[in-house]
Specification:
Elements: H1 2-16, E1 27-30, H2 31-42, E2 45-53, E3 56-62, E4 69-74, E5 79-86
Antiparallel strand pairs: 1-5, 2-3, 3-4, 4-5
Length: about 100
C-alpha cells in the first residue's frame, strides 16, 4: 500500500516539475531579418533545407569557420522560428551503399 502511494506521489511530483513548453522558447521573426543576423553575427550560411510538410521548410544554417549552426523552421508567410542552435557542426560525406545491400 505504501509503495503505491509513494510511487504515485513521486510520479505526480516529477510531472509537476517538468520542463516548460517548447512554444515559449521559440524565437520567431521575419526570415530575411534572421538570415541577415545569422550571416552578419555568426558567419552562418544556408547549409541544408527540406520540406517538413507543405507549410514548413526546415533550414540549417552553419559556419565552416566556427562550427556554429542554427536550425530554422520557415512558414509560407515569411516568418521563421529558431528551433535549435549549437556548435561543432560537421558535414559527413555521403557514403554510397554497398553492392547487394538493401536500400
Amino acid at each position: 500500500m505504501y509503495k503505491r502511494i509513494l510511487s504515485a506521489a513521486l510520479l505526480f511530483g516529477m510531472a509537476c516539475t517538468g520542463p516548460p513548453a517548447w512554444a515559449q522558447a521559440l524565437a520567431c521573426a521575419p526570415r530575411a531579418g534572421l538570415v541577415t543576423k545569422l550571416e552578419a553575427d555568426y558567419g552562418e550560411t544556408l547549409s541544408a533545407r527540406g520540406l517538413q510538410n507543405p507549410n514548413a521548410l526546415l533550414e540549417v544554417f552553419a559556419s565552416q569557420e566556427s562550427g556554429s549552426f542554427t536550425v530554422l523552421i520557415s512558414r509560407p508567410d515569411g516568418i521563421s522560428c529558431i528551433l535549435s542552435t549549437g556548435t561543432h557542426w560537421m558535414v559527413e560525406p555521403v557514403v554510397p551503399p554497398k553492392k547487394g545491400a538493401a536500400s
